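Task card 7
Instruction: Convert sequence to structure tokens.
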Amino acid sequence: MRLVARYADYSNVGGDVETVRHEFEVLKRHCERVGWDPEEITFSNDVGILIGREREALGRRVERVEPAWGS
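Output:
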């Protein structure tokens, strides 16, 4: 977030609501230190969605992708 505050116009963060909230607070603190308005940075969240017809098949799909999603 330090580099984002200093150089970026855009930042994308993965994770749940609490993780994203925390990262944005960290970004705001870094922006204050460098004299930059955090509202000038587009801040987004990368969300993954899985859709399936049957709960069991969907569960297997979740097990396969969780390691890559960092869950």
